[in-house]
Design brief:
Length: 385
């Protein structure tokens, strides 16, 4: 059968889809994955066919309305989630025509989207084909973004004669069982497989040195001047703990950070899935995929969330005892050093992180979930009770 994967629009969400997409392809199914033009290379780098849906990156849709006017993102958490939902909905609306054009020549039997890949339910409704959702992180479908998306998508929903955003037939959850909220809707559980852009390896990347290693990362978002300055100050703060600091950043930011930090800090594109198992602590911005990679490796986390969505998952990991969280107003140099020292010196954080890693490893792998995709496409799927 033909399966179309529609990520939310970031590089992280693309790599989150790769294990299941490749498993389906290896099972003999035809697989296409969509991407904005700037991320087509990320899709083809893993050997998947990429279909471009927009010349604009996803952050354009977050920051501007359909007329191209700037959109202010509120600070209040609930309002912020609605605004983020509206932004991803704008992306879904703008890319819908390109997806319909693809379907005229290559009609999918099944669509796989993410929790905020709003083009997926729209295209599924237009084509009258089933779709399912795969999670990118520990958050479920109820993150608070849908109300904003529903409002933004009224023209498209009216065009499709729908009064709401269609629900998926199935939800593939990658959350470790201990972090699932009490009373959560039963889902299909799937093992998280980390993935990111790769490079030629050097020995230090996959081996431990004499000092404990701390990884400081903002994912793929480093590039703006304030991001670079934030990472520089963060690395300087953590270095006070007599640890080895590594900073995975895009190549475009490597020279500037290296000049600021010198040779004592390893800076550059370092595959997080490779370096994570060698770390004693990962300090990051609250990105869901970064958090999943840390949990998969069994590494404690210091999470400095920058948006409300990230705060939701960060607090759940911290409540379990595998992380600490510092909100924007709390992330002072003193607090970062204090928290990092506590995470490095308290064995319970490592123990709880190792438990999450074991839980992830025990879940069914993507290849085992291909059967779910096949049943959804065939109309024979029955949700877990």
């Amino acid at each position: 059968m033909k399966i179309l994967f529609i990520p939310a629009g970031s590089q992280a969400t693309i790599f989150s889809f790769v294990p299941l997409a490749m498993a389906a392809r290896n099972a003999g199914h035809e697989v296409f994955m969509t991407a904005t033009e700037d991320l087509v290379p990320a899709v083809v780098s893993v050997g998947l066919p990429a279909y471009p849906v927009s010349s604009l990156p996803f952050n354009y849709f977050i920051g501007k309305d359909r007329a191209g006017q700037p959109v202010e993102i509120p600070r209040e958490p609930a309002a912020q989630m609605r605004a983020i939902g509206a932004g991803f909905a704008r992306m879904g609306a703008v890319t819908l025509d390109a997806l319909i054009e693809l379907a005229q020549d290559w009609r999918p039997d099944l669509i796989v989207g993410g929790p905020i890949s709003y083009a997926a339910p729209l295209l599924a409704a237009y084509l009258d084909v089933p779709f399912l959702v795969q999670a990118y992180d520990i958050n479920d479908m109820n993150s608070g973004s849908d109300p904003g998306a529903l409002e933004e998508l009224q023209p498209e929903l009216n065009r499709l004669k729908l009064d709401r955003i269609p629900d998926p037939v199935a939800f593939l959850d990658v959350c470790p069982p201990s972090l699932r909220p009490e009373g959560a809707t039963p889902t299909e559980q799937m093992r998280w497989i980390p993935g990111n852009k790769q490079r030629r390896l050097e020995r230090w990347m996959y081996t431990r040195g004499e000092r404990r290693r701390v990884c400081v990362t903002l994912g793929n978002r480093v590039g703006l001047a304030h991001d670079i300055d934030f990472v520089r100050r963060l690395a300087e703060d953590v270095s006070a703990l007599d640890v080895e600091v590594v900073i995975p950043v895009p190549e475009s930011s490597e020279a500037e950070l290296h000049e600021a930090l010198g040779d004592e800090v390893r800076v550059g594109w370092i595959p997080l899935d490779v370096v994570a198992p060698t770390c004693s602590l990962i300090v990051h911005h609250g990105g869901g995929v970064t958090g999943m990679t840390a949990m998969n490796a069994g590494v404690p986390q210091l999470i400095l969330p920058v948006v409300a969505y990230s705060t939701l998952s960060a607090r759940r990991i911290a409540a379990f005892g595998a992380a600490d969280v510092l909100l924007p107003g709390e992330a002072t140099p003193e607090n970062i050093v204090r928290s990092s020292r506590q995470l490095l010196s308290t064995p319970s954080y490592s123990d709880r992180s190792a438990q999450l890693s074991k839980e992830i490893a025990a879940l069914p792998g993507p290849a085992e979930l291909v059967a779910v995709l096949e049943r959804v496409a065939a109309g024979t799927y029955r949700a877990p009770a």
